[in-house]
């Protein structure tokens, strides 16, 4: 159902994208991999050439208001001048060096200053590095092996957590137990007789499994899972890789008053530069210092300088408030358009990271068509993954987005509601 | 034994490094982690501020000829102007985007053109990402679970391969079997009755385990392990993360005429920009296209542009020959100095990636002292890890390195040989 959708995008130039897809198919397995694999969505442009602020341009030069923000990393806007200047200043000195640059200490100090539950920080490149490090630290600290994960939650793409099983062995998942998000009873049931062997519970700040309605955390659940971790002596890992610094200028559960032990970060902490981090409390400091994790580029000083500038600017500009406000106006507009054109939609999650699905659209046919129609009208959204708002959006960008999305509903009405 | 070594370095300014170490200790577990943890070597500067060509400067402004090349990544020299210009050109367009930039296709095409055994390429951020992906692809392709690894070999720092066990569970290693490098009998013995369940044999192009003499591959072993993989239907993975593009402009076993199935790359393929890659043959294309691996920054276009420029420049400048020639002159000079001052040293491995150990120095006391004396004379080497030569070294850089290392032997003679 995802092919041959006849959308307005046909009026847009697509020849460069088509040609790049053809060349990629020859030298990249399946033409692309991971979350960037848009082969299932031919109407969505695969290759992107340029970006600035809240706009981007595909390989054919078509312009979009960006509601994906590079799947989260871009939070202050593409090529933010303050971040770029900090990165360039470090680049003139050096990037990948024989040891860390002084900026590494400044960045660790900034994380500790900014995040309530951070007594220390470590840095890496991938969100998966950070989630995996948290599990390893928890195991080292507790001498236990099992980790509780929520059913359907995404914590990265290493064999222990990748959502698709090809090439994964049973041993890779042997020490995982599953619970249901927001269901403390399911946590207790999953633990069962293993209480003495639970190293950690890893949980995302809200339920943001791709392809499903998002679900905000029940504050009672957050408090209960904290108390239960204390009861059984397990670490509470809050996976803030996707939501970190978009929900709160600090850990995403700080507003709930729920402290956590270990937090993996990535995506938006360096506005698109490749950086991940783990923060933790003093209780886990020795264990964190005792594990061996590393990478050739983990000390990359330019990425760290970008991270330091990003965290500072997010605070200085009060960007979380700005994104929340923009997100509320986006939600109000989209929900109004859906209603106006007669669609029953589920618009879920925090306003800065909304997810749009259509009721009874189990094979995503309508959301794929909607995204294609939105692309054709210059609004970049994804049919199955939550969107991201950046602080760079101007009121004009928001108006352009709302107009394009309204047009997409209008086009869908012709096709699906026959009027 | 590694503390309080009284070296000439005491004459060098160290206050900035000392202060940064103090601050790091407060906000980073153990003050530093992974291979960058220099806490065991107080005489070696931890923090590096600046680099250019074959020179670098520590946080106190002390200058060094660089024989570590950021642990391998820097191959054309720090801040190579051609690579920097290519990166900057891409940066002006965009870096971390909603999809890959066109340069991703060009880079994959360049890898396929350059590497004999590459029919396709995929990209990631860490060497560990790439070695892990190769194992996953081999498992997906064969439907088998076990991987053979050489005893003591380093293939990354994820739980399945990190050299230190803290936080690692038995399940993480449940599907590994071990053989001895260059010993085909040990390969057959390790496989034993598991022949039908071996997904892959992973091997480095030569033995480069840190802290040990390096060992070049016996060409007969390379041919035998290839034939044995074919016999049992397993993939041959050549881990070229550390050596790739320094030994040969292509795969490191190409000169031996030994084809391999899957190759992880990282370190030097982008001259210090954060990039890793997997290449493979058509036989493994479908499996590679069927696994789910990804990362938020894996499509970073600037790193890819740097990689494309690096691979192109390495070929155009015939950099492997230059590094080999420099390495031979370095080896000849170091071996001559050692002999002149009366030291029995083991100088092993390819000339471009040499390893220096002292005979009967089981606790590395002499190699630590030697490194400290070398640092004090403006030569950056490591006491336990192989060194790396870059193509940026001038004859003057080489002379400065040889003079400094000769001086280090001279200082050691006073201490250890009492004359």
UniProtKB/TrEMBL annotation, chains A, B:
Pfam families: Aminotran_3 (PF00202). InterPro entries: Aminotrans_3, Aminotrans_3_PPA_site, PyrdxlP-dep_Trfase, PyrdxlP-dep_Trfase_major, PyrdxlP-dep_Trfase_small. It comes from the Bacteria. Residues 8-20 have a biased composition (Basic and acidic residues). Residues 1-20 are annotated as: Disordered. Keywords: Pyridoxal phosphate. GO terms for molecular function: pyridoxal phosphate binding; transaminase activity. Its cofactor is pyridoxal 5'-phosphate. Belongs to the class-III pyridoxal-phosphate-dependent aminotransferase family. PANTHER family: GLUTAMATE-1-SEMIALDEHYDE 2,1-AMINOMUTASE (PTHR43713), GLUTAMATE-1-SEMIALDEHYDE 2,1-AMINOMUTASE 1, CHLOROPLASTIC-RELATED (PTHR43713:SF3). This is Glutamate-1-semialdehyde 2,1-aminomutase. It comes from Mycolicibacterium sediminis.
């Amino acid at each position: 159902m995802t092919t041959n959708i006849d959308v307005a995008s046909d009026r847009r130039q697509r020849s460069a994208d088509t040609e790049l897809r053809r060349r990629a198919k020859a030298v990249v397995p399946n033409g692309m991999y991971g979350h960037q694999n848009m082969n299932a969505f031919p109407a969505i442009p695969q290759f992107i050439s340029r970006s600035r602020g809240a706009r981007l341009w595909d390989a054919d030069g078509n312009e979009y208001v960006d509601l994906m923000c590079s799947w989260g990393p871009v939070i202050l806007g593409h090529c933010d001048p303050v971040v770029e200047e900090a990165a360039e200043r470090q680049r003139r000195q050096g990037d990948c060096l024989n040891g860390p640059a002084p900026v590494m200490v400044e960045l660790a100090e900034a994380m500790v200053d900014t995040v309530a539950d951070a007594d220390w920080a470590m840095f890496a490149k991938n969100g998966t590095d950070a989630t995996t490090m948290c599990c390893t630290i928890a195991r080292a600290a507790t001498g236990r092996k099992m980790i509780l994960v929520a059913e359907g939650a995404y914590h990265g793409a290493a064999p222990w957590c990748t959502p698709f099983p090809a090439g994964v062995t049973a041993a890779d998942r042997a020490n995982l137990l599953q619970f249901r998000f927001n269901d403390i009873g399911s946590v207790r049931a999953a633990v069962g007789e293993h209480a003495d062997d639970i190293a950690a519970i890893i949980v995302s700040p809200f339920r943001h499994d791709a392809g499903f309605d998002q679900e905000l955390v029940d504050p009672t659940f957050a408090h209960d899972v904290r108390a239960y971790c204390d009861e059984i002596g397990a670490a509470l890992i809050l996976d803030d890789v996707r939501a970190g610094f978009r929900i709160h200028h600090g850990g995403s559960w700080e507003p709930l008053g729920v402290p956590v032990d270990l937090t993996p970060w990535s995506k938006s902490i360096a506005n698109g530069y490749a950086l991940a981090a783990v923060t933790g409390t003093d209780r886990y400091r020795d264990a964190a210092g005792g594990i061996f994790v590393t990478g050739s580029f983990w000390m990359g000083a330019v990425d760290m300088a970008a991270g330091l500038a990003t965290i500072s600017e997010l605070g200085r500009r009060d960007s979380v408030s700005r994104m929340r406000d923009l997100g509320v106006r986006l939600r109000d507009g989209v929900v109004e358009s859906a209603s106006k054109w007669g669609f029953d939609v589920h618009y879920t999650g925090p306003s800065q990271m909304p997810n749009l699905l259509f009721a009874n659209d189990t094979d995503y046919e309508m959301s794929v068509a909607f995204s294609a129609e939105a692309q054709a009208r210059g609004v970049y959204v994804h049919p199955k993954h939550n969107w991201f708002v950046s602080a760079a959006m101007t009121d004009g960008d928001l108006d352009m987005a709302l107009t394009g999305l309204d047009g997409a509903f209008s086009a869908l009405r012709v096709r699906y509601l026959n009027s």
